[in-house]
């Protein structure tokens, strides 16, 4: 008796192998199930049969076979096919990206899907980091959603065409992939623009002759920066000192002004007296590659930590 037929167009060998392994496992447990194959146009149908010994087939066996087939399909859809679906979305929606850019977006999107927190959980968005437990819960939630939909479908139909099922019955799942893909593209575009900005700044640094040997960057009250020389004297700079009063009334980014100030004086060495995790610190390190060090701790750093409530003893290093 044919119980279920699964129609496959892509990944036929992989689906056949996974379902075949499940059939062998069920046979070892005493369930007389077999899998045959037939073709219909571009589709390959993998058909599952339960042997009728003349006394009828127990309902429990039918349900068990359906469950295990659905479980294999859910695992493959969520764990393996999702990447192919994301790659297809990137090709169709962002054809102006080259192959390397498309691959980078696919990697970012699939990683973001793994890190997404469950709906309703606070503090989780696409692209945020999460623990391995978060990833496991996220995968289990997504897999169970797909599993229940496959089981529900097989309760009322004996034939399931995999591609059509994903397209028309798993719209929430596909929408989730699409949202992750679009978010990954946004992140990639921001990163690309940032890298282009860094390259431009590095160019200006390379063509500048150093005007001072060493500059110390400290944070003033209110988060404003000040440049000091090796003797602790303020380095005169129109970017940081002359424009500061205007910041109260404008949207000028003071971190951008810091970069302009550093480029204008082009120091041979830069010592940063604030946290390593600060975004501006990473930018300075990339633009002035090989010239930047993080102060391991001094009175200037202690003043910053007191202002920012950073625990004393936080270690930094040199690049």
List the defining traits of the structure above:
alpha/beta; Nucleotidyltransferase, domain 5; four-stranded mixed sheet; 8 strands; disordered C terminus; 10 helices; 319 residues; single chain; 2 domains
Provide structural commentary.
The chain has ten helices and eight strands. It has helices spanning 12-28, 59-93, 99-115, 132-156, 162-169, 171-207, 238-242, 254-265, 279-287, 299-308, and strands at 2-8, 33-40, 43-50, 159-161, 212-219, 225-228, 267-272, 292-294. The chain has a four-stranded mixed sheet. Helix 1 runs antiparallel to helix 2 and helix 2 packs across helix 3.
DSSP helical segment count: 10
Which blocks of ≥5 consecutive residues have pLDDT under 50?
117-129, 242-252, 310-319
Structural class: alpha/beta
Strand arrangement in the largest pleated sheet = 2-3-1-4
For the residues shown, what is the average pLDDT?
84
| Strand percentage | 5-15%
The overall number of domains is 2
Outline: elongated
* Count of extended strands: 8
* Rg (CA only): 30 Å
Q: Gap between N and C termini, in Å?
A: 70 Å
- Give the proportion of residues in helices: 40-55%
Quaternary assembly: single chain
Outline the biggest β-sheet.
Answer: 4 strands, mixed
SSE topology string: EHEEHHHEHHEEHHEHEH
